[in-house]
User: Fold this.
Amino acid sequence: MRQKKDLPHAFRRTAKSMAASFRVSKKDLTTRARLGRLVTAHGVVETPAFMPVGTQGTVKAMLPRDLKEMGCQILLGNTYHLYLRPGAELIRDLGGLHRFMSWDGPILTDSGGYQVFSLGAMRKLSEQGVRFQSHLDGSSHLVTPENVVQIQEALGSDIAMVLDECIPHDANRDYVRDSTERTIRWAERCLRTRRRTDQLMFGIIQGGMYRDLREKCVQEMNPMAFDGFAVGGLGVGEGEELLQSIAAFTVGLLPEDRPRYLMGVGRPEDIVSAVSAGFDLFDCVLPTRNARNGTLFTSAGKITIKRAEFADDPRPLDEACDCYCCRNFSRAYLRHLYMAGEILSSQLNSLHNLYFYHRLMERCREAIRQEHTDFWSRETGATFSQSV
Amino acid sequence: MRQKKDLPHAFRRTAKSMAASFRVSKKDLTTRARLGRLVTAHGVVETPAFMPVGTQGTVKAMLPRDLKEMGCQILLGNTYHLYLRPGAELIRDLGGLHRFMSWDGPILTDSGGYQVFSLGAMRKLSEQGVRFQSHLDGSSHLVTPENVVQIQEALGSDIAMVLDECIPHDANRDYVRDSTERTIRWAERCLRTRRRTDQLMFGIIQGGMYRDLREKCVQEMNPMAFDGFAVGGLGVGEGEELLQSIAAFTVGLLPEDRPRYLMGVGRPEDIVSAVSAGFDLFDCVLPTRNARNGTLFTSAGKITIKRAEFADDPRPLDEACDCYCCRNFSRAYLRHLYMAGEILSSQLNSLHNLYFYHRLMERCREAIRQEHTDFWSRETGATFSQSV
Assistant:
């Protein structure tokens, strides 16, 4: 791997270069969970926090007003999708992504790498970047470490992510080693491209399922002037056990004074477990995608709303929930909307599932603050894996 | 036609039987428009009023909260759809339609007749009623004047409609005469079936495009103890001129002291014109259906949001509108949502179009109250027929 001396001083982490965008305010007594404050150009994020995914400039089926009202602090925007449609320059010319989607809170944008590898066709990977064909119209595009930064600067997000290669979980060691080294070189190129001073930038730790490669990746990236680190390449089919162990191992290597983001994870119990391992930020399509498919999270487990048993059930989805959906509608009504294919089904279900995730994060923060040491084992236990 | 003496006293209109559910508070100076108050079991409706259509127990893509917030006073529910799915008994057992859909304001239900004639397959019409096959699963059903009242009583709406035959606009005179006579006999059977005292019932005037048949229908139904009258069989392809002239002719025959409802009409200019002719209540799927198709009403005419010219248009949909959509989003964003097939497109567009309709009704009421005599010709003029 590269020598640290190769990295010019300007892109090395120094006390001065790291304006205190993140501060840990309290550590949990029995786990590695921590309470933090992440300061961005559009406001503060109290961590641990969940970021709803706003793929195409909208969190599907949600008014920004309702996200705000449920305590949502920060959204994730997908650079790949916004770049292809409606285009980053257009969004920039219209005043940036915040104004475009009418969300005045913090936004994190991914680099688009994940979608290039999962949605793009005819991918051709080189040191320069990745050439791919749009899933929308087949047009050819090149993403590079440089242009993903430029695109994210055009979008004007509060936190930009570096370009990384998303490695299949079963890739062999040689491939993972080469890919991870390239991801590190790309990360440095991202830092060099950076121009905006009002946008934080997070590095991404890769290394697949190999602990020594994860370790090397952290060693290389730690000195770089990133405002935070994400752990990538997990939740891609490697299984629960490997996900948990690699995530916990990797987060333990990361500096304490910068936010740690576990990308694309996941289920409520995975998130609580990752918080207890020391992660601060999360995103996942699960609450919104499940909502549209009629799978709903409740304090008593998951509910598949289309099941016949709910046809005449007058109870709210979750007796313990005080979201707009649970305060106003019965399971029977929600089942009816789902069976009838009504748009309101997606609206109410998304509202509830996101509310559930935000209350979960609130309870994580409360557990650290109030030293509820029994919270962690209880919430990662059997509750979530039950299905009603 | 039938003799008035056939109608038993209990079903005849008397001063006593007509508790003052409707009162005209002011008449317009130059037109037949009037301001009224319609009192229902779930609150007062200030007329003229527009009723958004809640086909399957939901106004498509709208939270009840947002309907309330925009000043929506009364909803329309479709008996045909609710009867087939999820079923009227189920809704009754869950506490009625209001609780089911979490709308505590007034609800008018139609009889289902219109959908039986437009959606049902293999229809067989007899004196008893109409046998038809469900558009959902082909199952066979019989609607009669008696059971449409029972179904609406089970739903618990505030205003029930009688069963009528919806006649094609080009039906010949003999057919229209026979059908209208049957509709009158059905109306009487509806009144006889009525049990709830907290539900108003409106008769429906048919008669096709024949003025003398419309007149006879009014003569027959006027003595009946209906709380209001609807004019049906218009807006079914007969053309703008015939619609306006038959509507204006028929409304002029109706008693002054009961609310007058023009069913299924329509475009903003049609509604203003019908208000000036003396109608009080309206329903139409146009604002919500158009919204989902990307056709939006503005003070400067209709907008087709998918048009390329809006791709980079930073202006709100309607500069003169202060709805949530126009206060927060650009035309460029709304176009993007539409092109990307996002659910939020239907949500924001529906919100705007319904807001537009409600402001229009508010302006109608204001014009009568404040004696803005130039309002009527201005609003039924060229404005609405322009497309941007």
In short: The mean pLDDT of chain A is 93.
